[in-house]
Design goal:
single chain, Rossmann fold, Dihydrodipicolinate Reductase, domain 2, 2 domains, 8-stranded mixed β-sheet, 15 helices, binds NADP nicotinamide-adenine-dinucleotide phosphate, G6P_DH
Length: 504
């Protein structure tokens, strides 16, 4: 198996090694990095949890997970024999100081065996209530004293609101330097999301059009067809605004709206994103009523199956006021974007799963064609599809073949599947490799997280203080509540959905 000489010897300590995130995402990602030769010769994964397992039992468990969830399919015996000896398990309760002594001993033993001082990455794949105790115990046990070699990865959610996010940032800052802290928003690791920057800043033709003079409005829509399943216990404390808009959708907005960074370094890129968040218009309570819409799904049918409403899901509160749908109209008050609305929407149990950014351009200033030629005329649109289709489409007007002059909308398409034969890595593969390389570009800086919380707080507070009178207010397999249609229709637009046949 090839190894990577650019990545230093690395030990991954995965808190929550027996959990769902490690099973479905982290372990398959690390295995695929190994398979593709991205891992160094000297690497170790130490999984932890309270479950009683030994190294072999943990390896068996990961093998089953990787077989089930890896994008590269079932593991080959020879590759597994190369990978498995790098995997260890240590039973530990994160609240117990003695556990950290044992981690220290494991790490020391590997250092001696390898004859070198490796980088150590502590990955916190545990419930957020454990983030502070783990960070504090790592520091108290002197396991994270060297900022050059030790890093801490924090999963989402980063805080429950602005105050708790600030508190967590403060606590982390007591024990770690910012360059050691990797706050994950896995959306930022997706190929199509990374491509937004490549597309915007490596093509000269876009920049002159990328502003209020040519762009009429922007839509960012992340829809899911599934309900909350058995996560209602957690989801009821969160909701669509916290779970999706505060992080993933606002990060997408930043990528669309940011100014060109001076270079592609972590701080430059993140500075430009923070600029966007700081320029975004704040909401007064009246603005919230005007510009933000919430919804909750009712029982219904999806693809011939009867499905429960949110309040009937397992562990859900039957009177829950939690939104499973949110749509918000934002403005970025700066020279580039003044007056251009950004409509963001997300929700569960909607008609289709899709993440799409649509940039709608203004109409041509003057039509030279007769009315009948332009019956099907649409505005130019740039449609960036993140999932499940991975593509960028530019919708233009063209003459339909025939003797008369009839205009039609046609798509110029860049489609990943048709363009490249290599399979794209999963977001977690990119992010884990970046963590090993010490590249924070695709991770959230502390001030970025706080700026995003600041922006959504008035909406959260207003919704918390006003119990919704009409929940549930949208049916399964729909596109959300009628009020979301009205939000955008008031400005003369409608939500854009990529046709199903768009994917070839
Ligand atoms: P999970 O399946 O409930 O796993 C929780 C893990 O924490 C288990 O490995 C559990 O191990 C361990 N744990 C709990 N209490 C512990 C203690 N006192 N000491 C030591 N270990 C303890 O949770 P998850 O879904 O993997 O989520 C983990 C984190 O990732 C959460 O912050 C979540 O928000 C975030 N996240 C998850 C996903 C996902 O797809 N699952 C996606 C995005 C973000 P034992 O049971 O063996 O003790």
């Amino acid at each position: 198996m090839n190894t990577n000489k650019n990545v230093p010897p690395t030990i991954f300590v995965i808190f929550g090694g027996t959990g769902d995130l490690n099973s479905r995402k982290l372990a398959p990602a690390l295995y695929n990095l190994f398979l593709d030769g991205w891992l160094p010769e000297q690497f170790a994964i130490i999984g932890t949890g309270r479950s009683e397992l030994n190294d072999d039992a943990f390896r068996e468990r990961l093998l089953g997970d990787i077989n089930e969830f890896s994008r590269t399919g079932k593991v080959k015996a020879k590759t597994w024999d190369g990978f498995a000896p790098h995997v260890y398990y240590q039973q530990a309760d994160v609240k117990t100081a003695a556990s950290y002594k044992e981690f220290g001993q494991r790490i020391k033993a590997l250092e001696q065996e390898w004859g070198t001082m490796p980088n150590v990455i502590y990955y916190l794949a545990v419930a957020p209530e454990f983030f502070p105790v783990i960070a504090t115990n790592l520091a108290k046990s002197d396991l994270a004293t060297d900022p050059e070699r030790t890093r801490i990865v924090i999963e989402k959610p980063f805080g429950h609101d602005l105050d708790t996010a600030r508190e967590l940032n403060r606590l982390l800052a007591q024990h770690f330097e910012e360059r050691q802290i990797y706050r994950i928003d896995h959306y930022l690791g997706k190929e199509t999301v990374q491509n937004i920057m490549a597309f915007r800043f490596a093509n000269a033709i876009l920049e002159p059009l990328w502003n209020r003079n040519y762009i009429e409005h922007v839509q960012i829509s992340v829809t899911e067809d599934i309900g909350v399943g058995d996560r209602a216990g957690y989801y009821d404390t969160s909701g669509a605004l916290r779970d999706m808009i505060q992080n993933h959708l606002l990060q997408l907005l930043c990528l669309v709206a940011m100014e060109p960074p001076v270079d592609f370094t972590a701080d430059e890129v993140r500075n430009r994103k923070v600029d966007v968040l700081r320029a975004m218009r704040r909401f007064s309570p009246d603005d919230v009523r005007e510009s933000a819409v919430r919804g909750q799904y009712a029982p219904g049918w999806m693809q011939g199956q009867e499905v429960p409403g949110y309040r009937e899901e397992k562990n859900a509160n039957p009177q829950s006021n939690t939104e499973t749908f949110a749509a918000v109209k934002f403005f970025v008050d700066n020279w580039r974007w003044q007056g251009v609305p950004f409509y963001l929407r997300t929700g569960k149990r909607l008609h289709r799963k899709a993440s799409v950014i649509t940039i709608q351009f203004k109409e041509p200033p003057h039509f030279i064609f007769p009315r009948e030629a332009t019956e099907n005329l649409r505005h130019n649109r740039l449609v960036i599809s993140i999932q499940p289709e991975e593509s960028i489409r530019l919708q233009m007007q063209a003459k339909r073949p025939g003797v008369d002059m009839l205009l039609n909308t046609v798509d110029m398409v860049f489609d990943y599947e048709g363009t490249y034969t290599v399979e794209a890595p999963e977001a977690y593969e990119t992010l884990l490799l970046d963590t090993m390389l010490g590249d924070q570009t695709l991770f959230m800086r502390g001030d970025q997280v706080e700026a995003a919380w600041e922006l959504v707080m008035p909406i959260l507070t207003s919704w918390q203080n006003r119990t919704s009178q009409n929940f549930p207010n949208y049916s399964a397999d729909s596109w959300g509540p009628e009020s979301a249609e009205a939000l955008i229709a008031r400005d003369g637009f409608h939500w854009f959905t990529l046709p199903l046949h768009a994917k070839k």
